[in-house]
Design goal:
The chain is mostly helical. It has a single domain, classed as Methane Monooxygenase Hydroxylase, Chain G, domain 1. 63% of the residues lie in helices and 0% in strands. The protein contains eleven helices and no strands. It starts with 5 loop residues before the first helix and ends in a 12-residue tail after the last helix. The mean pLDDT is 95. The protein binds protoporphyrin IX containing FE. Protoporphyrin IX containing FE (HEM) binds next to helix 3, helix 9 and helix 10. It holds the Pfam family Trp_dioxygenase. This is Tryptophan 2,3-dioxygenase. InterPro entries: Trp/Indoleamine_2_3_dOase-like (IPR037217), Trp_2_3_dOase (IPR004981). One of its GO terms (molecular function) is heme binding. It comes from Saccharomonospora piscinae.
């Protein structure tokens, strides 16, 4: 007997106590709607913590002197699976009625998902930081993939042309494609949810809302997408290795 209990191990007391709507509990309809809104955000942030951990571990494996790309691919695949799940987490907010949302939205002032530090870290890891002025820095995941390919005397174009016989390089590249698509799907679902919830109204973070978000839609790892595209348009390939 270890004396460890289910709720103790999971710290459920603390965890469940963190869901605290600002609406008075007596106002059942709005209280339940705000509770729903908070849970969707909090669970997303919890899962994001896992995504960042898995991506960090993958990066560590890929950049180690022995470059364990197989381990890195497994980590990225898990991060991609969780990112897919997060599409459902944001999508469930289609069930937030605009009237209920309007009744508690004023309470959180200028707070906005745009302030999420974990999402900001994720964008950096994916090389997905976009702004009108400049491209963001390259994804460190892609940097390691490209370095490994160069060290092993090949290129991404060749990896894709020889697939599925390109081993760990191919598996890591494809896991990044999964992550790229899951991230894209999250953004698209988020825009849809935002347009359902607030239409063309401005965001609490001060942006134009839907138009701003639509402009920021991005598919991470453009170099890998390019190598895949070369299979359809071989004239894009600089040299055949
Ligand atoms: C009814 C639901 C939601 C609405 C109406 C909404 C609205 C918005 C709006 C209007 C923005 C643009 C910034 C601003 O002006 O505030 C934004 C950004 C953002 N929201 Fe949401 N959001 C919702 C749900 C969520 C959820 C569940 C998450 C997950 C934590 C989330 C995460 C984000 C992130 C990460 C950004 C920044 C996106 C970027 O910079 O490209 N949002 N949201």
């Amino acid at each position: 007997m270890t004396g460890v209990t289910y709720s103790g191990y999971l710290r459920l007391g603390e965890l469940l106590a963190t869901v605290r709507p600002m609406t008075r509990a007596g106002n059942r309809r709005v209280y339940a709607a705000e509770h729903f809104f908070i849970v969707a955000h909090q669970t997303t942030e919890l899962w994001l913590k896992q995504v960042l951990l898995d991506v960090d571990c993958a990066l560590g494996a890929a950049s180690a002197p022995d470059r364990d790309l197989e381990q890195a691919a497994l980590g990225v695949q898990r991060a991609a699976a969780v990112m897919r799940l997060l599409t459902e987490h944001v999508g469930v907010l289609r069930r937030l009625a605009p009237r209920d949302f309007a009744d508690f939205r004023g309470g959180f002032g200028q707070a906005s998902g745009a302030d999420s530090e974990q999402f900001a870290r994720l964008r950096l890891l994916l090389g997905a930081e976009v702004s009108e002025e400049r491209e963001g820095p390259e994804s460190p995941l892609y940097t390691e993939l490209a370095a490994a390919a160069a060290e092993w005397g090949t290129s991404l174009d060749t990896v894709y042309r020889r697939a599925p016989h390109s081993g760990a390089l191919y598996r890591l590249a494809e896991s990044l494609v999964e992550l790229s698509q899951a991230y894209w799907a999250w953004q698209v679902t988020h825009v849809e949810v935002v347009s359902g919830a607030i239409g063309r109204a401005r965001g609490t973070g001060g942006t134009s809302g839907v138009d701003y978000l639509a402009d920021r839609l991005t598919t991470p790892f453009p170099e890998i997408w390019r190598a895949r595209r070369c299979l359809h348009e071989p004239t894009l390939v600089p040299e055949l290795g």
